[in-house]
Amino acid sequence: xxxxxxxxxxxxxxxxxxxxxxxxxxxxxxxxxxxxxxxxxxxxxxxxxxxxxxxxxxxxxxxxxxxxxxxxxxxxxxxxxxxxxxxxxxxxxxxxxxxxxxxxxxxxxxxxxxxxxxxxxxxxxxxxxxxxxxxxxxxxxxxxxxxxxxxxxxxxxxxxxxxxxxxxxxxxxxxxxxxxxxxxxxxxxxxxxxxxxxxxxxxxxxxxxxxxxxxxx
Length: 217
Description:
- It contains 9 helices and 9 strands.
- The protein has helices at 10-28, 36-43, 47-55, 69-79, 95-101, 105-108, 140-147, 161-171, 197-216; strands at 33-34, 67-68, 86-91, 112-119, 128-129, 132-136, 151-154, 175-178, 191-194.
- Strands 5-6-4-3-7-8-9 form a 7-stranded mixed β-sheet, sandwiched between helices.
- Strand 5 (128-129) and strand 6 (132-136) form a beta hairpin.
- Helix 2 packs across helix 3 (47-55).
- The protein is globular, with a radius of gyration of 20 Å.
């Protein structure tokens, strides 16, 4: 495990889920061990990068053997907190919120459990999505405090996100998976992971057009 006094760069942290995904695929193929070179060829990163990243957390490899796939998968899962119970809620039960609730890998692959969805729309309140009920946002505070919820996905309009996120942080939410196209300014003890879909798409179109222009020069 990582030394709590050691500052791990955000770039390394962002690569961990990718390692976890590739190792999961190797496990599914009953591959028991792999070298950093072999893993690098699959992931298209250098072997030295893999070794440097994993050395931040103890290394896990054995010279002449490589990595035990099952052990490394388990250890990275622990680093990512996937060995703990991760209950979450989704605020905004429209198309995107329901799509997230329907994403089976939350439960089956990664151990996240969507406990409830919330919305202000009377037409949505009371329906179930994959067995999870949509509740009125008036019930948010009590639900968060009663169930000890720490993680919330926000799939609400950007004009509503800052105020509701501020209240939810006061009620105990420590991490926001923010799909609202706005930056949230919250206390330092609250983590925000932004998923700005339009920005991601614009980055994609830039790269597509830029590559086309380079090829045509």
